[in-house]
Amino acid sequence: MSGIRGSxxxxxxxxxxxxxxxxxxxxxxxxxxxxxxxxxxxTLLFLAGVVIVFAILAPSTFMTAYNWQNILVxxxxxxxxxxxxxxxxxxGEFDLSLGYLAGFIAMAxxxxxxxxxxxxxxxxxxxxxxxxxxxxxxxxTVKFKISSFISTLGxxxxxxxxxxxxxxxxxxxxxxxxxxxxLARGTxxxxxxxxxxxxxxxxVMLYVLEHTPLGRHxxxxxxxxxxxxxxxxxxxxxxxxxxxxxxxxxxxxxxxALGTSGAASPAYGSELxxxxxxxxxxxVSTYRPGYYxxxxxxxxxxxxxxxFNGLGILGVPFWVQPVFNGAVLLVAVLTARxxxxxxxxx
Amino acid sequence: MAIAVAHLxxxxxxxxxxxxxxxxxxxxxxHALVGANGSGKSTLVKVLTGVYxxxxxxxxxxxxxxxxxxxxxxxxxLGIRVVHQEAPLVDTLSVAESxxxxxxxxxxxxxxxRWGDLTREVGELFEGxxxxxxxxxxxxxxxxxxxxxxxxxxxxxNIERDGQVLILDEATASLPEADAAQFLDRVKxxxxxxxxxxxxTHRIAEVRAVADRITILANGRVTHGGxxxxxxxxxxxxxxxxxxxxxxxxxxxGERSSxxxxxxxxxxxxxxxxxxxxVLEVSQLRGYGIHDVSFDLAPGEVxxxxxxxxxxxxxxxxxxxxxxLRSGGSIQVNGTKLSQRASxxxxxxxxxxxxxxxxxxxxxxxxLSLRDNIVLPDARRYWRxxxxxxxxxxxxxxxxxxxPKQPSxxxxxxxxxxxxxxxxxxxxxxxxAVIVLDDPTSGVDPYSRRLVFNAVQxxxxxxxxxxxxxxxxxxxxxxxxxxxxxxxxxxxxxxQGRDLTRETLARWSYA
Lengths: 346, 511
Description:
Low-confidence stretches of chain A: 1-6, 339-346
Distance between the termini of chain B: 42 Å
Structural class of chain B: alpha/beta
Strand content of chain A: under 5%
Helix content of chain A: over 70%
Mean pLDDT of chain A: 86
Shape of chain B: globular
Order of helices and strands of chain A: HHHHHHHHHEEHHHHHHH
Helix content of chain B: 25-40%
Structural class of chain A: mainly alpha
CATH class of chain A: Mainly Alpha
CATH superfamily of the largest domain in chain B: P-loop containing nucleotide triphosphate hydrolases
Number of domains of chain A: 1
Strand order of the largest sheet of chain A: 1-2
Low-confidence stretches of chain B: 243-256
Largest interface: A-B, 32 and 35 residues
CATH architecture of the largest domain in chain B: 3-Layer(aba) Sandwich
Mean pLDDT of chain B: 86
Distance between the termini of chain A: 11 Å
Shape of chain A: globular
Largest sheet of chain B: 6 strands, mixed
Oligomer: heterodimer
Strand order of the largest sheet of chain B: 6-7-8-3-9-10
Number of helices of chain A: 16
Number of domains of chain B: 3
């Protein structure tokens, strides 16, 4: 649609994206590879750049197997949270309750553990609570037609209060089952079980979203709910499903979080929200430009994780960390906007 | 297979939308359904597609008589398919995927989609209909005609398999005439294969070209039903007005100028101050799809501009009125040069305004009232002057016959024709030197079209320059003194006098 005010930046962007598009069909393979890399994997290049910078600045500590294990082991929770944020985004909705929900589930898990229940019961409770949280978000948004921005914010605020109530203002750490902690701390091939599980979930989601009719219905619903509805796609069910699975994934993230720290703090959770969305937005510029997608999100998480780790090793002042994260979020939103424009310009 | 309705009625609080309606569309023929906005034809389409339940009467589909169609899903089961003006495409998906949403994806082991098969199947479907659209293209990149043809293919795909009635709900409204003709060829072909086609349209030329029979609705009643052969525009418009809106007709055909009343109500003088020379001078304009466009517009002149979607014409109205930045050339409005970085605000101050093609997203603020929309660009003039505001809104409603006559009516609830009248009066009230109209009659019924053009011509008589962009060639010939044809972003021809005919316009557009 024209009628949007253009600018010089738009012209430059159009020229670049045209060059890239032509390049992808170029017979010169160097140009073709370069164009595909620049058009679809610019975050990968960015990641490589960040890795090189840290490797030069901290050669003895950053580029070690031990450090990379450290980087990966803390990614299980962010991966699950980002995938949880991704599903509602795909169908054109927002879930702002994710962080609070994670905090509440972790607290519920710790509470049930404290009552002496065994590992399977604790994990089951945490999964069910996550699923329920998602279903409630879904019902408020889909059935009662409250804007998801508002409904999930309301649910989130309520959950933060309930977390406090459940904790009694204390950090709960008694009776956390060994299985839960070993999920997060035990390793296979040097990588934590939790990371393996998160990667498996990501792979399954990638397959379902990109290669099955169900997944395509997610994208179609997000692209145009009306058209999809007219085409006979059960858009309401698809949206409910996205919220429900999203809640379940938050439950998985909470299990890993509880296992990692071995305790649940009433303050935990809300800080998980923004990085999850930052990863989704940043992911839009990668793999399938213009669309929220799983591989792009995973690369984005790695980028954020490496940045976090590298800055820590360099010993930057404590306030640099959030500045870096915020800057990455802004870059993410800007790239997402530019990419969305590219889709429209064609 | 045929579809028929008898004694059909449907009322909403305050209005009788359908009143004892009778209509029969036979298999193998194209039946045109014509009526002013608000005449009940949308209601009839919604009754036939299961969206609304009638209060009384019978619907007969394929020999089965029903008191009503319970749901859109039941309409589909009965073999009724509908093509809307808005094509059912998801912009962010490929064309093939949009088709797959309707027909289902071919899948293999593990539910995996067989993408190759999908592209091939959709390609075959398009080939069978002689539609030149790449199934793997992103839906957002299609032209308006491409979208309409894909919409037809989707409906047709279903019909071939199990449907028998095709309803076209203003399906050609956003298409240029030549593309619409191509589209209607396919429709006719479909009808000849034994499908009953019910075509809702505002284009009388289309009725004459493809319809076998015509039904005309006015105020919820059938005022005419019979063969389409031999009915002309005057006859159709008189039947569309029915008996009860006699006053509207005199206003529509009368020469009384509505402009002075509008300007007087807003406290302006009754003539436009124009500088010497042209009111609009465009020289070597460049930007987006436009490479080189120059023309002058004299005070009171109506100039037409036409071209295919590929000609860049879609960008021209926005370049002229400051909502797209030009990369070169100059625009001078009534003696004032627009700066390179002109905004719509600067353009409006200089005296050039735009009636955009997309009324709901660009023409009016959909959630605001008719009153707020009319005074929007000049709200300061009415600040703490409620009486003047009332007078202006009242004058606009009277002079352009805007329905309903309620200043508080919400813009998006108005019919297309009335929305356009609101947008037009909003700009005319500013006493602009130049008004740019971008496809001003899409989705506007013939009666409202007359009112719109009467107002435009009245403004032109008061020295307002008019730029009319349209792909309805007959309209350009009737309204304009000369017409520019764009091709490849530049003016390919300037036609006037005896050279200005449908044939020359078509030849220059496509050559």
